[in-house]
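Before the break, one more example. Copy the sequence into your notebook; we will annotate it together after we see the structure.
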Amino acid sequence: FQTFEHYLIQINLRMAAFPKIKSTHSLVAKHVTKEKWDKLSGIETKTSGFTLAKAIACAVQFDNQHCGIYAGDMDSYEDFADVFDPIIQEYHGISADAKHTSDMDFEKITGNVNPDAPVKSTRIRVGRSIDGFGLSPGITKEQRVGVEELMKKAFAKFGDDLSGEYYPLTGMDEKVRQQLVDDHFLFMSGDRNLQVAGMERDWPEGRGIFHNKEKTFLVWVNEEDQLRIISMEKGGDVLGVFKRLARGIQTVADSVKEESGKGFMLDEKYGYVHSCPTNLGTGMRASVHIDLPGWTSHGVDKLKA
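Here is what the structure looks like once it is written out:
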């Protein structure tokens, strides 16, 4: 296992050479051909100087990738479209002329989780990226700090039940750190994919966590995406959690716009832009924790077939 910097040194030494892709069954192995490599490998994006070599680092270093590619900025999706477009279309099952639609109107949702279901907690999150900054794999140190400074000002504008406090990872007090760990809010370094993809450079500078007083609304700053906006609470009120998320996303968007004039990165074809193409679109993931009586009563061994 190599560091991101060591990998880049090796790639730079053989920039003209077509790399050996260890993840032979990945989408990268299928769609990064020598012809495309020769055409694109010398390009550096304008926003963050990202390259195709950096984009496919995980597929080159690891043998377990399904997708295997990340974008370093909005430019990556355009400059390396010959690679990204077919990967995105195959992964998401969309046509080349598809247009994304995203509808966060909670008034259109009917029904909810059965209150008798053994749901312990509900969590829904989205990723969002702010125009003009690089995405986590390519973002420069200056840009990353710029995102954090912008978000500090934006968070200060939050009102009512969304108001809270921002906790930067740099210089974090041990008591605060432990409380965030206990609350299962803290994201940490050490993920090999994120390291090789370049997302843990300059750790922990420019990164942090915001949460409201009730600990039901969170924003992660500069983890895998510039922003991970999260709504969560105990129990199975999925509709209530989604309503808070929708309000929260709009509040973040409005506050960022008021503070900087910038909006979220939004592509007409692919929707909201993320560092990983598998998250393109609405960028939303919803999950519930449920109690499985057989599991908790008898343990894993008894449940094995």
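The longest helix spans residues 238-260. The radius of gyration is 21 Å. Try to locate both features in your own notes.
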